[in-house]
Every structure is written in C-alpha cells, then in structure tokens.
Design goal:
Length: about 290
C-alpha cells in the first residue's frame, strides 16, 4: 500500500499542491492497510527528487499519516493548513480534554549527518500556543545515536520525542485511549522526568526510559516493544535494498549519457536556468519600482 501512496503522489503532483493534498488525505484516511503505510512513511524514497513538488507533497502526506495515527489511538485529530509558523497536526483527547500539536519527520536512508535544526524541537514548543503538549514524530533510528542538543531541548521545553515505531507498536496492539489508558503521561514525559535526569544521561533517557514508559502506559512490556522494533528493522532493511537498487539503476543510466546529456543534466541539477530567471525577475522588479 505504501507503493500505491508513492504512485499517487507522483500522479497528483501535476494537479497542484492543494488538490494533491486533499486527495492523498482522503486516501490515507480510508485505506484498510494503514499499518503498511505507517511502517514506511518515515523513509523518503530516493525516487522522489530533492526539493521537488513530490517531496513537499510527501511531507504533507506524512502529516496526514500522523493525524490518522492519533485518530486510531482514540484522539480527535486534523492536519492544519500549511503555515510556516505553526505545527502541522493538532490532536485532542475526547476523554481527558488535553490538546497537543505535532510535527511529522521523514528522512532519506542516504541522509548523513542530522543536527538539531532538522528536528526543530524549540520551534515546535513555540507552536503549541494554547495546547498542552507538543509531540515530534520521527523514525526511531533517525534520532541521534550520540549526544545531541535535541534531548536537552525536549526536556527544557517538554517536547515529546515520539517515533513512527512507537505508533506501529501501539496500533498493532489495538491500543486506544480509554478510562484505563491516559496517553498524556507520554506527551508530558519530558516534564515528568526533568527533575530525575542528569545532562549526561539525556541520550539514555530517550533510547531506553521513554521506551519503558511508553510500553507500560499501553499495558505492554519493553521486551514486546523490542520485538516489534525487530520487525521494523526488517522492513527498513528491505527498503534499503530497494533504495540501493534504484540508485544503482540511476548510476547505470547516467554512465550511458553522451557528453551533451551529461552537461544538460548537470545544468538541471544545479538549477542554473531557474536561478538566472529568478535574478532577471528580481532586477526587473526593482527597476520598475
């Protein structure tokens, strides 16, 4: 079903951003194979070009996936209209009355170093406005494996660092918020542990303690979560082979280019014509001022 989603992104990209988002949101909201999409949405395919319309639509689709995941957990959730100074997703507990804002993250498997700016933890905190909590959802294994400022920021600003894998684990178990399960303890995890954790232990807190808290909150064991992670790793390994095959085929095609084709592709990749056009338009604009 994830392959179907990518095919629709490529198809709808020609219809305009708003129309594509509306149709993809409908598809994501109604598909029966939601877990398959949820399990792969954290990885941007190499077949989607950098900074392309398709990549922007994929990012918006990831918001729709996160919003549906919250709904599957029993919350009321919607994707907000695109704005540069707000979160992408909002959710509300129908039982406990709290609200949260959330941001979905996806990365390419080929992405190298990631820094705190990629996660925008502090910005997400500011976007909560009147909401009680702020939640960042990223691929589990894309969170920094070494010390990173995002862990301190998440504690200082009480931003929950969630992962797609946590959501897969919960939804596969049929978990919904109920009188017995109040999920606010997860969204408020940074605040609850802030007085217990030392700076040197911040990485461990996210790589271990949150997993334990998450598992216990939904009535499961950490061992169960680790088993679920094993299945997620298998999916990532399969995706890795797919992405490498795509890149190998692309390299093969490039190696067959003529000199003229190679020059044309290099010019396109550097967006030289677009940059010249933009400079021309800018100069014309100020000349008329």
């Amino acid at each position: 079903m994830f392959e179907k989603l990518i095919a629709l992104i490529n198809e709808y990209a020609h219809n305009g951003f708003a129309d594509a988002n509306e149709k993809l949101n409908c598809f994501i909201s109604t598909t029966d194979n939601f877990i398959d999409i949820l399990a792969q949405i954290g990885t941007i395919p190499e077949s989607i070009a950098h900074d392309s319309t398709e990549e922007k639509i994929f990012a918006k689709a990831s918001d729709a996936v996160l919003s549906r995941a919250f709904r599957e957990l029993g919350l009321k959730s919607t994707v907000l209209d695109e704005r540069s100074d707000s979160a992408d997703v909002i959710a509300e507990s129908l039982l406990y009355g709290y609200t949260l804002v959330a941001d979905a993250k996806a990365f390419r498997l080929s992405r190298t170093a990631k820094n705190q700016k990629d996660f925008k933890v502090v910005a997400l905190s500011s976007w909560r406005k009147d909401s009680n909590y702020a939640v960042l959802c990223s691929p589990y294994y894309q969170y920094p494996r070494k010390t990173s400022q995002i862990y301190k920021q998440s504690i200082d600003h009480n931003v929950c660092l969630l992962s797609w894998e946590h959501l897969i684990f919960a939804l596969s178990a049929g978990i919904k918020e109920s009188e017995k399960i109040n999920l606010s303890c997860l969204w408020n995890f940074g605040e609850s542990i802030s007085h217990k954790v030392l700076a040197a232990d911040m990485k461990r807190y996210f790589l271990s303690d949150f997993d334990t808290t998450f598992s216990e909150a939904i009535g499961r064991s950490k061992v169960d979560f680790e088993k679920a992670l094993g299945k997620c790793i298998s999916i990532l390994q399969h995706r890795g082979e797919i992405e490498k095959s795509y890149l190998e085929e692309e390299r093969k095609q490039i190696s067959m280019y003529s000199r003229e084709q190679a020059i044309d592709e290099l010019i396109k990749s550097k967006k030289i014509d677009e940059k010249i056009h933009q400079i021309t338009q800018y100069i014309r604009g100020i000349s008329r001022a």
